[in-house]
Amino acid sequence: MNTSKSISTPTKCYHCGESCEDNHLTVGEKEFCCQGCQLVYEVLSENNLCNYYDLENHPGESQKLKNGQSNRFDYLEDSDTQLKLLDFRNESESHITFYIPLIHCASCIWLLENLYQIHSGVVSSRVDFLKKKVQIKFQQEKISLKELVNLLSVIGYEPKINLSNLEEKKTKIIDKGLILRLAVAGFCFGNMMLFSIPEYFSEVQFLDKNFRDLFNYLNLALALPVVFYSASDYYRSAFNSLKQRRINMDVPIVLGIIALFFYSLWEVVGMNQAGYFDSLGGLLFFLLLGKLYQQKTFATLEFDRDYKSYFPIAVTKMIKNQEQVVPISKLEVGDVILVRDEELIPADSILLSDQASIDYSFVTGEEVPVTISKGSVIYAGGRQKGSPVLLTIQKSPSQGYLTDLWNHESFNTDKSQLLEPLSSRISGVFTWSVLAIAFASFLFWSFSDLSIAVKVFASVLIVACPCALAMSTPFTLGNTLRIFGKNKFYLKNASVVERMALVKTVVFDKTGTLTDPNHAKVTYQGIPLSEETKGLIKAMVSHSTHPLSNRINHWLGSITPISVVGIREIKGQGIELSYLGQEIRLGNAAFTGYSNCPTYTTGNLVFLTIQGVEIGYFHIESGLREGVKQLTSQLSEGYKLHVLSGDHAHEQATLTKQLGGNIEFNFNQSPKDKLSFLKKLNLTSQTLMIGDGLNDAGALQESTVGIAISDQVSHFSPASDAILDASSFQKIPAFLSFSKSSRNIIKASFLLSFLYNIVGISLAVNGLLSPVVCAILMPLSSISVVVFTTLATNMVAYRNGLLTQKTI
Amino acid sequence: MEVIFLLIGISLLLASTFLYLFFKAMKGGQFDDDYTPSVRILFENQTKKSNKNQSTKSNSNE
To answer: Are B8 and A218 within 8 A, CB to CB?
Structure first.
């Protein structure tokens, strides 16, 4: 093998752009990092689809870690499953929409829309890039659903199909109805303004009376769709809140709409005057615009993921030594199932095979696999690494150790109801005081002139429009969400910001949250390693994808691997290599034959033997995330801190030393313990829980605000109120203080809109309100509130270091 | 001046036509995906299973 050359000139894989390290493959002049990438290229070139590579450089995803199980899509032959997945089906054609997370560039769109060139059974396909979805129409006689998924998988675009796909389709984030209502409001508002122009300049009589009458009636006609169509959501919401004997922001809005409409109706029909229809149109137009803005800022991430999103749809069941793929819902206690390499354990079960190596990273955040021996319990959510194992189901998939959490009552409560938003508390006060002023001025005027009294009563209700009030919350919180999003902190909805502002206690999960698997501490004990041995170890660990191998690889640094052939990895055991007639083994104690094992209470050990001679071992512990110390000392000034951990208590001393003394530690916490711990804390204060694994799901749900931390936002994380990218972990104090400031900004903008209302109401009680004043005051107050909140949030964000450049 | 009555009628009719067209476009899904079409339009047209591949390949050194 011509090895030295390939190392000195690192080539990039033609398909995915990863550097081809050792034994790379070539087709013609093109080089590939792995079999998978080469296969994709071959399929594409056979079908004349090499345009794929012309649109972008290295458009593919690496196929190295691909799961090549040939029968893993067998469940798609089940007709029940098919019916649930398909959008449409008739005798000749079926339509299906797949979610493909790998869609990332123009080449992806091109290839997926040219699927019909690879297989004639595909009629057409259409990509929605932003949603990462593709809708495929295919003829089921020529290509079955399973073959279609297989085809996508072969070309590197494996769709993500999981249990939650099978249930009802998700509601859309942006509500189409809202846009239509806004369009109607905008249309009517614009035309009403035009027809009101003579009224604004009423001093100049440039149009005769006929025109004014016509314009007034046209305004009335245009107001009808606004009142009866555009505003319909507000009536519903106000009615619902009144039914619960509460006053939310929509109640004063509805009050204003009713007053505006009926008073204007009376003016136009009864008095031949203009009325305030243009203001009514403007009011709803601005309100709906604010609502749309708020919906647009919502993160497009999915938050309501439960265990069903992660568990496989089907499993391989053993019936009299015959493998059969069955949907997970048909699994019963006592069934024997076969779980292969990289497959998830669907339910709590007992191991029948001799040994399994289970990666619980979904559950605990720790990605180093745990070895489990025959007869022990394996919990759902683990992932088998290594050879296939047989299990017998102990509990049905919905009642396991973890999944039980989801049946807990805290998963059925809507957290946005936990805390009454600031705006609804203010709107109660607002509504009552406006009504009080209106009645008082009515009473005052009724002694002198009853008709003026009626007019004043109505104009107080009209001008005390909560428009500015109603807009300050969505715009402040919307902008806050946007700024959080820029810092890779994604909130489920706006109410989370308000809840975050009130947090007094912060609870951390330890493994995977405070500790970072990428910051592992590796120590080597034993006979010092020569450069040659190090080079060999480097070659061995580069060959494997096991997390411990990666850490040793990282620890070895820039040592040049010695190029060798014949490295063999036995999954769940270790790696072995024959070099110059010597057997080198790296792995667990049993595999290497290491007999005098040291006892460590934490971390993992990897042993090294050459020809059975014990050389030494690596002790690997996961280290703390970068900046944790700083973070905890910053937070301990304003918050009570707790750390929850599923591990044993002996780490406390080290952790206290590393994190500072102001933290309360709780060890040996099961997922349920974590949940009840948060429940207890909630009695005294608002809590913020930061966790990462499925085992924190209960605690995340129970806390006032639950933040899931994730190294890759689009990847796994448990259901939560917010998802935080691990790279922004140190910004948590800034996020907390920013959410507090946002709440203050809302308060300040309330004050501002109160000022406007005082001006308006004082004009109204004196009987001085005219359509022109109203037409100016209303938009002015709304726009200035929006400008104020946007500028203020940007400035606070800049001060907190969450925005890089000052926006004017 | 009476012509204004006619003009108002025409202008309202015109405006409502646009509103109707917007409704139709919205319901027809034209605003569902506002990114992919901008990429799609730049792709070369290819006739099914053609031997045009050779020429596209040589043309496309960016």
So the answer is: yes
